[in-house]
Write a structure and sequence with these properties.
By secondary structure, the protein is α/β, with parallel strands linked by helices. The protein contains 26 helices and 22 strands. The protein has an eight-stranded mixed β-sheet with strand order 7-14-13-9-10-11-12-8.
């Protein structure tokens, strides 16, 4: 009973048009379910910290929004301050009870309040009251606590939505939304919303220039789906029992029901484009059915959703006009992908915002490589409602500013200009050696994946490629690329950097990198089938790729091959055998090639503890600090709820990094690092002291890192490393590095002025 009630309340709140409607639904439904005379929501004002009386069932409605409590005032303040429930049978006798004149609660004795907490922040307090003098029982208390926990995110999102809109369309209000810094920099531009194919909830709201054309497209899509259902019905007539086959009759009745279609037509005539009109109408009907108590009608929501997606797919297919991207495009989507990024002309793309994902999502890594300011995990951003809106993307702090005021705009324009001046100043370092003041050389390599990276990398003084992401050509296609296609791509990279070394990682898919034509669906993909595990299970994929790499290296001899996600020595032995097999076959076929150096990526704790055994088998080691940090800290880097726990300065990470260096050098093998940590100007001070032989980073970090290297003395870094290894938290390490950067005059590389 309680679970069903919880579901229905959450669904009703999700369907609310704005914050106040959501709150009104919450108080009325909770009062009904719990059988209480009073239910109240107090929301915390983020600026003043006061708890504002925002919605109620049973008290004076005239005082909504007009009275508030300080964080130290009353029982409500106690709930918020202590962040735990308060359950009293005689509330008026409690020393913290505060009488609020006119609100009408003097007749109620029983009090139960629960904090509403979203991402460690108290959003407000949920209260129920009764005239009877009794303590609420454990089940009632548990229900209210559960409601608070479930509704915290909903209220946060509804609040954000309400702050940005007053009706169905975005208006002139300003708002800021917190996400996670994905790629540094400031972007000022216009929002362009991108949505995956046939996802009703992801369709942006957009005005149409030609309603008649949109109507024709809708009617054509509707007829196409009707034809499809008829065809499916005929096809399966003899293959399904009568009861199951009747489903198609249900579908046809829904299609032929003129009610919802008329609603879509009405919205189109009002100026909405066909896809948006369909999305809004179908989503409304889906929510209606999902909220019904009757199980039969609940299931009809699935039927409506399926039909809606079918119609939407036809609308999207019929939309043959290529997408237009204005100058200063800021790409916004629920979950941006590499292919979405690839569709936008680079000269028009200035920033990106993804509602889902973290700073180490694949698209964020690409954004950093391309120098595109990006915010990830902006979960509260009502992205479907902000098409063509003015946005500022703050890639330093992780904020997205919607419709910024003149003051905010001017501030970020100034920060952006300062950032450009800094970048231009670093250009003078391009042709200078990467060495410390006392002569210690530190080779700087780059991470690449797109041909666009090549010119920038060489122009900024890259001394080699520490990581070429071979999965990118796979991600940007609709099938596996052939051996010849791969050879041509790899050859282009090798020629561009010759005679400098190019380290090509074998196909690394799985986790947060899924191929659309080779889906890997797992409950826990980061602990599943990914990296070398996939390619060893599919030697045909591995051999084709290795053969293409070896062919591409003919006459150049600057290839290095690197194996990802190694967790045991058997995987290395198997992979080495396949590489040697491919090499020998090509030599027999007359290819004039040499066997390249082969290395292993250290990305999981098992590889750290077996680093010495791995080093004996290969020519070099390379640490992938992104994944290593994730696995050491048990933090899913794409989960915005725990993203704050992901920190490469964590003492456990630093100790692991040192252990890998010691193991590699004990076997006389070089070791580099190609994760994001290598491009962190402050972290470089520690990595050099640890003894890393090479740092590989995105090209945008090259000159910043070189500036730090040329400003410090290698002999001074041992003491910094020793101090960092003795502290207990990532924050303490960060503070040490900040002081060190200030001491060498490089504090401006930590954060732009005023950001």
């Amino acid at each position: 009973m309680m679970l069903e009630a919880l579901r229905s309340i959450v669904q009703a709140v999700n369907a609310a048009g704005n914050l106040q409607s959501a709150l009104d639904i919450i108080v009325s439904r909770i009062a009904e379910v719990m059988g209480t005379e009073v239910c109240t929501v107090y929301l915390r004002d983020p600026d003043s910290g006061r708890l504002i009386f925002m919605a109620n069932q049973g008290l004076n409605p005239d005082l909504i929004g007009k009275i508030s409590l300080g964080p130290d005032e009353g029982l409500v303040g106690q709930v918020a301050r202590r962040e735990e429930p308060v359950n009293l049978d005689h509330a008026e006798k409690h020393p913290n009870f505060l009488y609020l004149p006119g609100i009408g609660e003097e007749q109620y004795h029983s009090f139960l309040g629960a904090p509403i907490i979203h991402q460690r922040t108290v959003m407000g307090v949920l209260v129920v009251q009764q005239k009877d003098s009794r303590r609420f029982d454990e089940d009632e208390e548990a229900f209210l606590v559960t409601m608070s926990a479930q509704l915290a995110g909903v209220i946060a999102h509804a609040r954000a939505t309400g702050s940005i809109t007053t009706s169905q369309n975005a208006v002139g209000a300003t708002a800021s939304f917190k996400g996670i810094a994905g790629a540094t920099g400031i972007a000022i531009g216009r929002a362009v919303i991108v949505a995956p194919i046939a996802e009703l909830h992801s369709v942006p709201r957009r005005q149409s220039d030609d309603p008649q054309l949109e109507l024709q497209a809708f009617q054509a899509a509707l007829q196409a789906v009707r034809t499809d259902i008829h065809a499916l019905s005929e096809k399966l007539l003899t293959q399904l029992p009568a009861d199951e086959h009747a489903l198609f009759d249900v579908y046809l009745r829904i299609i032929d029901d003129g009610t919802w279609a008329a609603e879509v037509v009405k919205k189109i005539n009002e100026g909405e484009w066909a896809q948006g009109a369909l999305s809004q109408v179908m989503s409304s009907h889906i929510r209606t059915f999902e909220m019904m108590e009757d199980a039969y009608f609940k299931e009809r929501a699935t039927d409506i959703k399926d039909l809606g997606r079918r119609v939407l797919a036809y609308l999207q297919t019929s939309d043959v006009e290529p997408a237009e991207y204005p100058d200063k495009t800021i790409l916004v989507g629920e979950e941006l992908t590499a292919s979405m990024l690839g569709e936008v002309p680079r000269e028009k793309l200035v920033g990106m915002v993804s509602v889902r994902g973290s700073s180490n999502s694949h698209v964020a890594i690409l954004a950093r490589a391309m120098g595109i300011p990006t915010v990830m995990g902006a979960a509260d951003l009502p992205y479907t409602q902000i098409e063509n809106a003015n946005l500022i993307v703050d890639g330093y702090s992780g904020y997205v500013h919607y419709n910024p005021s003149a003051e905010v705009y001017e501030h970020f324009r100034s920060v952006s200009e300062e950032d450009q001046v800094l970048t231009q100043g670093l250009e003078a370092l391009r042709d200078l050696q990467s060495e410390t003041l006392d002569g210690h050389r530190m080779p700087l390599w780059v991470n690449t994946g797109l041909m666009a990276d090549v010119a920038r990398s060489l122009d900024r003084g890259a001394e080699g490629v520490g990581l070429y992401r071979t999965e990118i050509p796979f991600l940007l296609r609709e099938r596996f690329p052939s051996e010849e296609e791969q050879r041509a791509i790899y050859r282009e990279q090798l020629i561009a950097f010759a005679p400098l070394p190019v380290t090509m990682r074998t196909l690394d898919i799985g986790g947060d990198k899924a191929l659309p034509y080779f889906p890997i669906e797992e409950e826990n993909p980061f602990l599943g089938w990914r990296g070398i595990r996939v390619t060893l299970d599919h030697p045909e994929i591995f051999l084709v790729q290795v053969r293409a790499m070896l062919k591409a290296s003919e006459g150049l001899n600057n290839l290095r091959i690197m194996l990802p996600m190694i967790s045991n020595v058997q995987e290395v032995d198997e992979a080495l055998e396949l590489v040697r097999r491919a090499y020998e076959e090509l030599v027999e076929d007359g290819w004039d090639i040499t066997l390249p150096p082969i290395g292993v990526m250290v990305e999981v704790p098992a590889a750290v503890y077996q680093a010495r055994q791995l080093a004996r088998r290969v020519d070099f080691l390379s640490v992938g600090s992104n994944d290593l940090t994730q696995y050491l800290l048990a933090v899913d880097r794409n989960n915005t709820r725990v993203a704050d726990l992901y920190h490469a300065y964590h003492p456990a990470v630093l100790n692991s990094l040192q252990q890998v260096v010691d193991a590699a050098h004990a076997e006389g093998k070089p070791v580099g690092i190609c994760g994001e940590l290598a491009g962190d100007p402050a972290a470089v001070l520690l990595l050099m002291a640890m003894g890393y032989d090479m740092l590989s980073m995105n090209d945008n970090s090259l000159l910043r890192v070189k500036a730090v290297i040329r400003s410090c003395r290698f002999d001074d870094l041992e003491g910094l490393l020793s101090a960092a290894m003795q502290v207990d938290t990532a924050d303490e390490v960060k503070a040490l590095l900040r002081r060190a950067m200030i001491d060498i005059g490089m504090e401006r590389l930590l954060q732009p002025v005023g950001a």
